[in-house]
Amino acid sequence: MTTKPEPSESENRYFITDSHAELARLVEQERVISKASGGRLPEHTDQAAFVAPFQRALDATCGPGGWVLEMARAYPHLQVMGFDIDEQMIEYANTQARVGKLENASFQVMNALDPLDYPDNFFDLVNARYLSVIQRPAWPRVVQELYRITKPGGFIRLTEIEDDSVTTSPAFERMMVIFLQACRIGDIGFSPTGRSLGLPPRLPYFLRQAGCINIQKYAPIVDWSAGTEAHATVAQDLKIFFRLLQPFMIGVGVATEEELEQLHRDMEIELRAEDFCAFWTFFTVWGQKPR
Length: 291
Ligand SMILES: C[S@@+](CC[C@H](N)C(=O)[O-])C[C@H]1O[C@@H](n2cnc3c(N)ncnc32)[C@H](O)[C@@H]1O
Description:
This protein has one domain: Rossmann fold (3-Layer(aba) Sandwich), CATH 3.40.50. The protein is globular and about 55 Å long. The longest helix has 21 residues, at 231-251. Mean pLDDT is 94; it is low at 1-10. Helices cover 41% and strands 19% of the residues. Helix 6 (139-148) crosses helix 8. With 291 residues, the protein is an alpha/beta fold. The structure holds S-adenosylmethionine (SAM). S-adenosylmethionine is lined by residues 12, 14, 26, 30, 61-63, 84-86, 89, 111-113, 129-130, 133.
């Protein structure tokens, strides 16, 4: 007898399946990216003033919960929540909140592709970074669902990338091309050619379609060239990232294991070169639900 999968189970295909290793990677990545890109809400010169009138904030697809924990620590008046489909991420995040005595931080297991278990008009700020893990056709309804749970006058804030850096390393660049091709085949992002993810320019469109107004943009650059503070940590993060992506890239047929292993070896050397240069750009777009 076969068991019929839950509707959401059949749809969910996060491209990294080793969630243990992904958790460890994301914890490290959050530290370096948050610092190098200017903090939790770097687009606001006075973050405290922006957050002061808020009661509740949410981070959708929160991973191990770094954004929520930081927000809860910085703004004790704020109830900050996060959800992720991965039970391990949520267990880790809840443990961090408990150990850090952050009673205003909480996390739940939830699938962004399902109706979310929050009331209408509930959050003053709904944040999500790397919602790109959601497959292409689901985007309009996922953003609409984020809009439903946002209070009138509240904000939806989305941060995405076009790629995981532009660098001087030929091996890194080749790896990036392979990954972006895999994304296109795997229904991730919107690029018709796989040249990039093709997602950031669509964010204002999705927010507008959902009903948002006052749409704004901000794009910090993380410089992780040789000699910068971020260099070693970002290089390590992305080497692990590509390693964890191997099953996905091989699975969709864009590369062989041998090719990826060789690129990994070349990357090891090229990322350590004295003249190595790399920019990683994050595109943040936010909009407001009309009052
Ligand atoms: C690249 S990580 C980003 C985590 C976090 N937003 C950050 O910026 O560090 C993507 C996260 O999305 C989660 N995820 C993937 N598909 C999901 C879905 N359908 N619903 C909820 N979370 C999902 C994964 O478990 C993973 O933790």
